[in-house]
Design brief:
- The complex is a heterodimer of chains A (117) and B (114).
- With 117 residues, chain A is an all-beta fold.
- Chain A has strands at residues 4-7, 10-13, 19-25, 32-38, 45-51, 57-58, 67-73, 76-81, 90-97, 106-108, 112-116.
- Chain A contains no helices and eleven strands.
- In chain A, the strands form two sheets. In chain A, strands 2, 4, 5, 6, 9, 10 and 11 form a seven-stranded mixed β-sheet that branches. In chain A, strands 1-3-8-7 form a four-stranded antiparallel β-sheet, with no helix packed on it.
- In chain A, strand 4 (32-38) and strand 5 (45-51) form a beta hairpin.
- The termini of chain A are far apart.
- Chain B is an all-beta fold.
- Helices cover 0% and strands 61% of the residues of chain B.
- The radius of gyration of chain B is 14 Å and the shape is globular.
- The chains are: A mainly beta (117), B mainly beta (114).
- The interface between A and B is medium-sized, with 22 and 21 residues.
């Protein structure tokens, strides 16, 4: 089946630094990738939809200047949390849509746990 | 705004019990409803439902969708401790153009005790 990887799987950083998270589709091309955030005991909240070669579409309430998304190729999207603060600590999950699959199924990466000190 | 509501939010049962998890939704431009199981990491896919009244089964798990009443149920029979997880319901709807996005419910935390 389709595999999506994320790197790193966990990261600890100091407040004020920027952190980049990578999402890769390993065996399929993904023109669309999605970034979610999940706080403890909460559900996944869609942050943005990332389309290859164009600007990401952000959900209401998500700061595009703080969460920079780049989808430069059909297999890679990156999320950069700029000037991270403790309240940005969360579990970040990406998913990728396999255009070649019926119903354009989304496949999820394993997630990245971000802790900002 | 699209909305997905799951109930109960948590459930504790004994091995061998049967459980029913509920998911109701309000979305525009509905495309499909999906169930996921989440243990410690990212969700793993269980079912995708697009048509009313057609039960999907996988082992001890089954699910059905009612598009008229806007809800779905996930049944797990003869529960095992390995079924302990958060079960997420998500609804896929168009977000403009050819884009589809998922809206997740808060999940049901299922704990199966030996």
């Amino acid at each position: 089946g389709a595999v999506v990887s994320q790197h790193p799987s966990w990261v600890i950083c100091k407040s004020g630094t920027s952190v980049k998270i990578e999402c890769r589709s390993l065996d399929f091309q993904a023109t669309t990738m999605f970034w979610y955030r999940q706080f403890p005991k909460q559900s996944l909240m869609l942050m943005a939809t990332s389309n290859e070669g164009s600007k990401a579409t952000y959900e209401q309430g998500v700061e595009k200047d703080k969460f920079l998304i780049n989808h430069a190729s059909l297999t890679l999207s990156t999320l950069t949390v700029t000037s991270a603060h403790p309240e940005d600590s969360s579990f970040y999950i990406c998913s990728a849509r396999d255009q070649g699959q019926p119903y354009n199924e989304q496949f999820f990466g394993p997630g990245t746990r971000l802790t900002v000190l | 705004e699209d909305k997905v509501v799951q109930s109960p939010l948590s459930l504790v049962v004994h091995e061998g019990d049967t459980v029913t998890l509920n998911c109701s939704y309000e979305v525009t431009n509905f495309r499909s409803l999906l169930w996921y199981k989440q243990e410690k990491k990212a969700p793993t896919f269980l079912f995708m439902l697009t048509s009313s009244g057609i039960e999907k089964k996988s082992g001890r798990l089954s699910s059905i969708l009612d598009k008229k009443e806007l809800f779905s149920i996930l049944n797990i029979t003869a529960t095992q401790t390995g079924d302990s997880a958060i079960y997420l319901c998500a609804v896929e709807a168009t977000s403009g153009g050819s884009n589809y996005k998922l809206t997740f419910g808060k999940g049901t935390l299922l704990t199966v005790n030996p």
